[in-house]
Amino acid sequence: MNAHQMVCHLRDSFECGLGQRYASPDSNWFKRTIMKWGALRAPIQWPHGVATRPEMEQGRGGTPPADWERDCAGLREIMLAFSSAKKFGVHPIFGPMSQEEWLIWGYRHVDHHFRQFGV
User: Fold this and answer.
1) CB 6 within 8 A of CB 69
2) Whether 89 contacts 13, CB under 8 Å
3) Does residue 95 fall inside a structural domain?
4) H or E element at residue 44
5) Is residue 83 part of a domain?
């Protein structure tokens, strides 16, 4: 994934979080409890190389990069909408989450990818 693809991946992921984009479920008890707690609450950085859902993956089902400025503007817009949202979709791996959990997920997901690219 390059930086432009990462911008599109993050936007796709926020759209999924808002229930605007479908992501196939891949959940079980372990992922909805232990893995979710670790991803949202453990004081460690997310590991690299963890597979995403095919609908969010660049080169598969994710939105392909088009125009850098437009794609970055779209990411900013969806992040603003996400930060003030009261209603969310269901996370394809972690299952239903509270507003607080979604906001933590959003921060940690962006932080994960921004660190990946040294932002």
Assistant:
1) no
2) no
3) yes
4) none
5) yes
Placement of tokens 């779209």 in the chain = 74
Query: Tens digit of pLDDT per residue, the chain (119 long)?
Result: 999 999 999 999 999 999 999 999 999 999 999 999 999 999 999 998 888 999 999 889 999 999 999 999 999 999 999 999 999 999 999 999 999 999 999 999 999 999 998 87
Alpha-helix runs per DSSP H in the chain: 3-17, 29-30, 36-41, 68-83, 99-116
Domain contains 47: no
Place of tokens 């996370």: 91
Q: Is the pTM of this model over 0.70?
A: yes
Range of the structural domain that residue 8 is part of: 3-42+53-116
- Angle value at C-alpha 110, between 113 and 56, nearest 5 degrees: 75
Domains: count for the chain? 1
For residue 48, is it within any domain?
Answer: no
